[in-house]
Hints:
The protein is α+β, with helices and mostly antiparallel strands. It has a single domain, classed as FAD/NAD(P)-binding domain. An eight-stranded mixed β-sheet has the order 6-5-14-15-16-13-17-20. Strands 8-2-1-12-19-18 form a six-stranded mixed β-sheet, with helices on one face. Strands 3-7-4 form a three-stranded antiparallel β-sheet. The chain has helices spanning 12-23, 36-40, 50-58, 63-68, 88-91, 102-116, 236-246, 249-254, 298-319, 328-350, 357-372, 374-385; strands at residues 5-8, 28-31, 47-48, 70-72, 75-79, 82-86, 97-99, 120-121, 125-130, 138-143, 146-151, 154-157, 175-190, 200-202, 209-215, 218-225, 260-274, 277-278, 281-283, 289-290. The protein is built from twelve helices and 20 strands. The structure holds adenosine-5-diphosphoribose and P-hydroxybenzoic acid (PHB). P-hydroxybenzoic acid binds at residues 45-47, 199, 212, 220, 293-294, 296.
Amino acid sequence: MKTQVAIIGAGPSGLLLGRLLELQGIANIVIEAKSPDYVLSRIRAGVLEQGTQTLLREAKVGERMDREGHVHDGFALSFLGRLERIDLHALTGGKTVMVYGQTEVTKDLMDARAQSGSLSFYSADDVALHDFHSDHPSVSFTSNGQKHIVECDYIAGCDGFHGVSRKSVPPESIRLFERVYPFGWLGILSRTPPVSHELIYANHERGFALCSMRSSMLSRYYVQCSLDDKVDDWSDQRFWDELRTRLPEDAAASLITGPSIEKSIAPLRSFVAEPMQFGRMFLVGDAAHIVPPTGAKGLNLAASDVYTLYNILRLRYQQNRLDLVAKYSEICLRRIWKAERFSWWMTSILHKFSDDPFNQRIQEAELDYYTSSLAGKTTIAENYVGLPYEAVE
Ligand code: APR
Ligand code: PHB
């Protein structure tokens, strides 16, 4: 089989890149290790920056997002029993975010690809990348017991943190930066109305909490937990009691609880691989970087990588701009490190790192300072709605 771009992974990065390329007439094949149902069973954050929304509309998959998504023009930070609002709209000259689940984004992209007739292989085994330092890269894999080889011009490694693409690079050619945090997030989904119409990020001396949502009747809540905790240690009752304790009084009093329909524990990590390009192979999204979920940047960073690679490949094929191809990594990393910084900072000021009361007071002072200063609030707001995309030129 021959194609122009072989895409490894059918998460949001791989599917969005495939869709944008296909609309420009650039042929691509998606190769995914899991089944479509498995891919759609993953529950992840659902806060879309304006840049992500624009890109989804450009990919002609924005219709349901615009119909069913919720525009949020602010969110709240809670500490010392106070609730301080960050007015995203007013502080950024009219920018907002859209709350629309990542699972829904993936589903819309999958449906669009199924309709377009572009080729995808799901449940692929033994995926391997070959010769990406030559002019003739290829990807081999097994599907339904049959071995396939896709010959291509470029390989997009969109296969997430545990994927094969980054691991195909010799260790001496890649530099990894990592921070693993000493706690996790216990998350639940419940068919209850959200406690507030906007997200609440809470600092509390017992640990972080987050109130989020998927819709007016579907809530997503998190509490910081120990990495040793197991989901079974947390009955619904224990979860709700702990969440209530960590929220300001008014919010705690109006919290409506119900049975959880999903409950899971996720570790928190910051991670960046440099560079993100090896000859004719590009790392995209979680394959190249991970952020802790505190700034809601994971999917948005994946989208900005896709924006960069899509435009580079579009100009490469349509205007023969071969010079741009080597710039992918440099362009992406500038924005990635700024989002890594913001996600690390939000994590640092909102979580309990130790029993040292000095740390707690410093966090409270930092939150008090940032939320009482226009400059401080503006800094938070402009990072939360998403920094501008770097130009592809
Ligand atoms: N071969 C083929 N596909 C693979 C392989 C492999 N060896 N290994 C992993 N995959 C697939 C996974 O099954 C998954 O469907 O690659 C896909 C990667 O998808 P994601 O992990 O969702 O990564 P990405 O598309 O970059 O999306 C980034 O996802 O993890 C969140 O917070 C993150 O929101 C961000 C978004
Ligand atoms: C979520 O809704 O799952 C969510 C929202 C915001 C975050 C993280 C997760 O920062």
